Structure formats: C-alpha cells, structure tokens
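Lab meeting, action items carried over

1. Structure of the two-component assembly. Owner: GW. Status: complete.
Input record:
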Amino acid sequence: ETGVTQTPRHLVMGMTNKKSLKCEQHLGHNAMYWYKQSAKKPLELMFVYSLEERVENNSVPSRFSPECPNSSHLFLHLHTLQPEDSALYLCASSQEVQGYGYTFGSGTRLTVV
Amino acid sequence: GENVEQHPSTLSVQEGDSAVIKCTYSDSASNYFPWYKQELGKGPQLIIDIRSNVGEKKDQRIAVTLNKTAKHFSLHITETQPEDSAVYFCAASKSNYQLIWGAGTKLIIKP
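Predicted assembly:
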C-alpha cells in the first residue's frame, strides 16, 4: 500500500448518475490533489487542496465537485458526466503544496456509459 | 502554452540492453524535472528527479541528464530487467505545484 488509498478501484456509471470517488492518505501530508489520466495524454491537474482549502481549480467543468473535509480525506463528487469523462482519476498527496514529493494512489478507473 | 514533449511513445528493448527516454520542455524558467514510473494498475511513483543546478544524477541503474541550453532532459536505464516494463512519465515545474507532464513512454522489456 502506497499510503494513499483510493476507492472504488473501478466505477461504471450512467450519464445521469451521481457517484463519489474517495481518497485517503495516511502520510500526514497537508496537500492533496486530483488528477485525470487519459490514455496517451499528459496527466491533467484538476484540483489542489492545502489543509482543506482549495488552492486551484484548473477550469474543470462543474459536473466535477471536490470536497476536502480534513487534510486526510479528499472526495470527487460526480454528476451528469459525459462519455469523454471516462478516464483514470488519480489522487496524490504531498507534504505541502509543491511540485515534488508526490505520493499517488492507484486510481479509480471510471467508465461513463 | 507551456508543454513537455516526450519521445518515444513506445520503446521496446532486449533484456539487458539500455533504454533512453527523452523529454523537451518549453519554459526556460523550469527548474525541477522528475521522472515517474507507472506499473499496470498502480499510480505513478517517483523514481528519480533532477534540479536545474545539476547536469546529471544517478541512482544505481537509472540516471537522468539535463541540458538547460537545449531544454531537454533524458532518462537512462542500464541493464534493463523485466520489472522495468512500465509507463514512464517526465515532468517539469517552476518551483510551484504546477507540474507540466509528458504524455508517457511505454517501455517493453523483451526476454
């Protein structure tokens, strides 16, 4: 286990469903991130949180809604998704908001049908 | 905008041979260059990184070289082994959290 746990590992949802992705880190880090990984494309940073405060929202559609109730937990709430939202969603954490020292979770493979 | 180009997209080498993956970045202010390895079903894991005040860094069978003038950096893996098979990502950043990522290289080690 890497210290960052993501659930579920796989998720299939219809375009009208509402679901949530969960991330938990056991490393005592203060910063957490959501990334989207699509095949053969660079990782896309979606959201950044520092001590439960959102630092960055990289022009992500409102059908993705993050929540950070405390520095150990991060959620991504999904609603009215499109098929092009199908991807691997990765959570990462680091000691502070920075570009190094990331620990990634194993991701949630999302398929929108 | 800022981008990082990574080549090749797929690399197949014979076990025991060396593998080289190259990345070119556009922002000359970039000063931190990590390499991540992603195995099947797992998230990316940092394997080596280099800062702009250093030209080369080595860790056992892996090394990274940086040419600031040409704005490119490379990952070198020597004596490749089956467990080196994975997707490798390069990235660049400017002392903040905004990592600009390459599109990845799938490395295949042939037995």
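2. GW to write a short summary for the group page. Key points so far: The radius of gyration of chain B is 13 Å. Chain B has no helices and eleven strands.
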